[in-house]
Amino acid sequence: MTTIIVGLGNHGMKPMRHSIGNMVVNSLASVLGLSWRSDRQCCGFICETENEKQEQIILLKPRLLMNVNGRSIAKTAQLYRVTPDNIFVIHDELDYAVGKVSIKQGGSANGHNGVKSAINSLRSDVMHRLRVGIGRPTTLSQISPYVLDDFIESEMPLVMSTVDDCVDIIVKRYNLVTATDKLVREQKDDRTKG
User: Fold this and answer.
1) Chain segment 165-185, per-residue pLDDT in tens
2) Which member of 11, 18, 91, 128 is catalytic?
């Protein structure tokens, strides 16, 4: 079985709340000791690994803007023959305060254009989603500038802690082997051989 873990964001743009999915998947790749490579077929950046059960895990950062990133997800799913229920999408959630996260399977996009693009491109809403809170502005007219702005300095410790929590959730959920775990295992192997 293959799983795709996608971090949504606006590739190539300044840091912003809307790109917290990218922050999480970047941190995940780092913890796993993986390097990103550009993939034209996927319209994004990918890294590949296996979990404890030798199942293939693909990390994906779409190279497209948020509102059309579903094309990248669908192309990657087609290339690796992954069904929507084996796709895990990490995205920002306006309805949650900074620091709150939850996992959801299926359901509507709830106004999130990146999730809407994924649902439309995959022709399914059954993917699993890690919803990462970014807070909500006080008025509807402020939503667009709010999600396109970066977190304020006082929020950053909680944001970084939340990113770490999200990585821990994903590592446990998918039985992933971190770079530290690999190093410890290699050292134990070396000691038993020597």
Assistant:
1) 999 999 999 999 888 877 776
2) 18
The mean per-residue pLDDT over the stretch 79-105 comes to 97
- Report how many domains make up the chain: 1
Q: Which of 5, 11, 128 is nearest to 57 (CA)?
A: 5
User: Is residue 11 annotated as part of the catalytic site, yes or no?
Assistant: no
Q: How far is CA 144 from CA 61, 137, 147, 148, 155, in A?
A: 22, 10, 6, 6, 19
Q: How far apart are CA 56 and CA 158, in angstroms?
A: 31
pLDDT in tens, 137-150: 988 889 999 999 99
Res 70: pLDDT: 96
Q: 30: number of CA atoms within 13 Å, CB side?
A: 9
Any idea what the CATH number is for the domain that residue 87 is in? 3.40.50.1470
Instruction: Give the domain range for residue 165.
Output: 2-193
Q: How far is CA 130 from CA 66, 106, 133, in A?
A: 16, 11, 10
Tokens of 2: 């293959």
pTM: 0.92
Mean pLDDT, the chain, rounded, equals 93
Q: How far is CA 28 from CA 31, 44, 120, 149, in A?
A: 5, 16, 26, 23
- The length of the chain is 194
